[in-house]
Amino acid sequence: MTYGEYMQGHVKGEKDIIFVNISWGVGIGIIIDGKVYTGKSGFSGEFGHVNAYDNEIICHCGKKGCLETEASGSALHRTLLERIKNGESSILSTRITDEDNPITLDEIIDSVNKEDLLCIEIVEEIGQKLGKQIAGLINIFNPELVIIGGTLSLTGDYITQPIKTAVRKYSLNLVNKDSAIITSKLKDRAGIVGACMLARSRMFES
């Protein structure tokens, strides 16, 4: 995803970039001086598994308190179902009892863009939580560009504005003034484009 956005997205010469993929889980891609940083074993970017919360929610990795237990597509899905079951109203409320056709993340994203207030509220809360953690990344890496991508980026300003607000609040002013925060041009296609571009690059290298 990171390479796809770097090669075919909004990047216009920037060399230090963080790509935040917010889908069912959360991950980041890091480009330093124009090169993708993968870490020693290729596992860099597991941003969703930073221990961020003192909760009892078990992440799919088996640990508790991971960022993506409260700020991810899976958290959005779980929280929406919980709040509908507790009596809050959504255009998806009638779907909650349809066990043969469960509510999907794509439907929730679509509901946000149809201005469903409950879905919007949860997405904005997730944006605030992500923004606080992204502020830490900005303090550490001082990137020129932070690109928000993945499925939740399809909600547009509903996710990006809370992220930007939290980043301004929690990152150092001297650092965050260097970092533009934008939405991915490739949206949820960044992974496919990146894989193709990377394969082509390696073919020419060999």
UniProtKB/TrEMBL annotation:
Coiled-coil residue windows: none
Stored InterPro entries: ATPase_NBD, ROK, ROK_cs
Entry-linked SUPFAM superfamilies: Actin-like ATPase domain
Gene3D superfamilies on file: 3.30.420.40
Entry's family note: Belongs to the ROK (NagC/XylR) family.
Protein name listed in UniProt: Transcriptional repressor of MalT and manXYZ operon
